[in-house]
Specification:
There is one protein chain. The chain contains twelve helices and twelve strands. It is α/β, with parallel strands linked by helices and 345 residues long. The protein folds into three domains: 50 residues, Orthogonal Bundle (434 Repressor (Amino-terminal Domain)), CATH 1.10.260; 132 residues, 3-Layer(aba) Sandwich (Rossmann fold); 140 residues, 3-Layer(aba) Sandwich (Rossmann fold), CATH 3.40.50. Helix 9 links the parallel strand 6 and strand 7.
Length: 345
C-alpha cells in the first residue's frame, strides 16, 4: 500500500457502518466502547494495515513527536553508537529523531538548534561543540521551559539532566595502566579546555601521575582545539611531543576522533623517532585490528544515548514543570591490548 493510499479512520467507519468517533474510541481502547465493537474494529484495522497518522496525532496532542539531536559528528564512533541508543528508545516510544552535526562549530550549533526548534521538535538532546563558550541562547531556551538533556559534553551553567561517562576514572585508569607498564614520560593529546570531557580527563591523568609520585609536565599536554577534525593539527601535536625536552615514551589520547587520527599521525611521525606505548578513548570496533592491537578506554555510548533519551521523554511527557534533575555518570571500560605494552629499549 502506498503512503497516499493509507487507510484512515473514516475508511474503517464506512466499511463497518460505524461513526468515526466510535472507531476512534475503539482504537484507543476506551471503556465506553463494547468489547465486541473493539474486537471488530481492531481486527479490521489490523487486516487493512491501519497506522495512526502521526501528524494528526501530534496536532491533537500539541506535540510533534520528534526529538532533535545535536552532536559534533555522526561519523565519530562514540556518537554513532550513542545515536543508535537514542533511536532505540525514541522509536519504541513513538518519537522520530532528527539528527544534526556541528562539525565543532558554535555557529553551526546555534543554527542547528534554531532550525530544530523552528520545526517544533518536542525536545533536544545536546552534546556541545568544541567552540561553544557563550551559552546565553541555550539558557534562554531552557528558561522558557523547553526540554533539553545534555550528554557527553555538558555544562553546569544549564540546570537540566546530564548523562556522561566517568571521564575522570577512565583517564585515571588509562594513565595508571601506562605507569604500571613502566612508562615514565606520558604525553596527553586532548581537545579544547572549553569541554567538560577535556577537563575531567586531564584531571584523571594528573591525579594518576600524582598518585605514583610522577611530576606533571604541562609541556607533555597538547590541546587540539578542533578535537581531531583537522589532521595537521594532530600531527603537529604528535611531532611536538617527540621534540619536547622530555621526549615521550607513551601517549594517551582523550577523545574518539583524536585517538584514531593520532594513530594515523603516529605512522608518519614515529618513523623518525622510537616507537611509543599508546592508549586512548575510542569506541571503534576496529581497535583490535590495528598493528599492534590498540588498548582503549571504551565508553558506554549506546547506554548513554538510551539514558539521555529516557530522561528527555520523561521531561516532555511530564504533566508538571520538571525542577529536579539527574546527573548520571556511567562507567567506562579499560580494554588492554598490545599497544600499551612497554617497548624494549
Amino acid at each position: 500500500m502506498k503512503f497516499d493510499d493509507a487507510i484512515t479512520i473514516k475508511d474503517i467507519a464506512k466499511a463497518l457502518n460505524l461513526s468515526t468517533s466510535t472507531v476512534s474510541r475503539a482504537l484507543r481502547g476506551r471503556y465506553e466502547i463494547s468489547a465486541e465493537t473493539k474486537k471488530l474494529v481492531m481486527e479490521y484495522a489490523e487486516r487493512m494495515n491501519y497506522r495512526p497518522n502521526p501528524i494528526a496525532l501530534s496536532l491533537k496532542e500539541q506535540r510533534s513527536k520528534a526529538i532533535g539531536v545535536v552532536v559534533s559528528e555522526i561519523a565519530n564512533n562514540f556518537f554513532s553508537q550513542a545515536i543508535n541508543g537514542i533511536e532505540s528508545i525514541a522509536y519504541n516510544n513513538g518519537y522520530h529523531v532528527i539528527i544534526t552535526q556541528t562539525h565543532e562549530s558554535k555557529e553551526r550549533e546555534m543554527v542547528n538548534i534554531q532550525h530544530l526548534v523552528s520545526r517544533s521538535v518536542d525536545g533536544l538532546l545536546l552534546s556541545l561543540s568544541c567552540e561553544t563558550t557563550d551559552l546565553s541562547y541555550l539558557k534562554q531556551l531552557h528558561e522558557k521551559g523547553f526540554p533539553i538533556v545534555q550528554f557527553d559534553r555538558v555544562t553546569n551553567e544549564i540546570d537540566t539532566h546530564r548523562v556522561t561517562a566517568d571521564n575522570y576514572m577512565g583517564a585515571f585508569q588509562a594513565t595508571e595502566h601506562l605507569i604500571a607498564q613502566g612508562f615514565r614520560k606520558i604525553g596527553h593529546i586532548t581537545s579544547t579546555s572549553n569541554l567538560s570531557i577535556t577537563r575531567e580527563r586531564l584531571q584523571g591523568y594528573r591525579d594518576a601521575l600524582e598518585k605514583h609520585n610522577m611530576s606533571y609536565d604541562a609541556g607533555l599536554v597538547k590541546h587540539c582545539t578542533h578535537g581531531g577534525m583537522i589532521y595537521d593539527e594532530v600531527e603537529e601535536a604528535v611531532e611536538s611531543l617527540f621534540q619536547s625536552r622530555s621526549k615521550v615514551d607513551a601517549i594517551f589520547t582523550a577523545g574518539d576522533r583524536l585517538t584514531t587520527v593520532t594513530l594515523s599521525a603516529l605512522k608518519n611521525v614515529a618513523k623518525k623517532y622510537k616507537q611509543v606505548g599508546f592508549i586512548g578513548f575510542t569506541n571503534t570496533n576496529l581497535a583490535e585490528l590495528f598493528t599492534p592491537p590498540v588498548s582503549v578506554i571504551r565508553q558506554p555510548a549506546f547506554e548513554i544515548g538510551q539514558s539521555a533519551t529516557e530522561l528527555l521523554i520523561r521531561m516532555i511527557e511530564s504533566k508538571r514543570p520538571v525542577t529536579e534533575f539527574e546527573n548520571r555518570v556511567l562507567p567506562s571500560s579499560l580494554i588492554i591490548r598490545e599497544s600499551s605494552a612497554l617497548i624494549p629499549s
